[in-house]
Write a structure and sequence with these properties.
Layout: H1 3-81, H2 89-103, E1 108-112, E2 116-117, H3 121-124, E3 130-142, H4 145-157, E4 162-172, E5 185-197
Antiparallel strand pairs: 1-3, 2-3, 3-5, 4-5
Length: 204
Amino acid sequence: MNALDLHTLKTLQRPLGVLAAVIAIGAILLYYTDRALQSAQRAAAQQESQLREARIQLNKSGEEKETIVRYLGRYQYLQQLGFVGDEQRINWLDGLRLANRETRLFGVDYQIGAQQPYPYAAELNPGQLTLYQSVMKINLKLLHEGDLMRFLRTLAQFGAGVFSVNQCVIQRVDAGDDLRNQPNLRAECELAWITLRPPGEKKS
């Protein structure tokens, strides 16, 4: 190798070193840029997923709001009726008194048992709702069989609560000589007053 070649190599040594450093730095930057790009893509995908979820939740909340608005009146009516929430025993007794007066019967005797789970709730498929019942036994004196149905219909119309008739037994009684103004029959009925408790609400 002659002197000219050595001089040329020495002259190019520094630029070649700078070029090698630039290439190395470029490779490093490219590596980290690629990693940053992948991270940004993952973040963007996550943000997009969260945005989709937020839109879904927003749509659901809108649907739930529409459902609440649509059924709020009916729900409030059921609360006033005494079907939703705590049982309203005073309303039941007022209903008995008013139904007796409206149908002009001879008074009502009653006994109310303790509240307990409604035994046929599974058949109604209430979901997370809990159904309860309180069994009431009533005794009525009647002029004829039709009085019993009139009494039960009137009791339901007064809106004292929601009840079902489990059973009724009618027996004839001695009315004496005046059959027009004395009861001829005695009815013993078992009513189940039913209440519904929303999820998360405890018994008071």
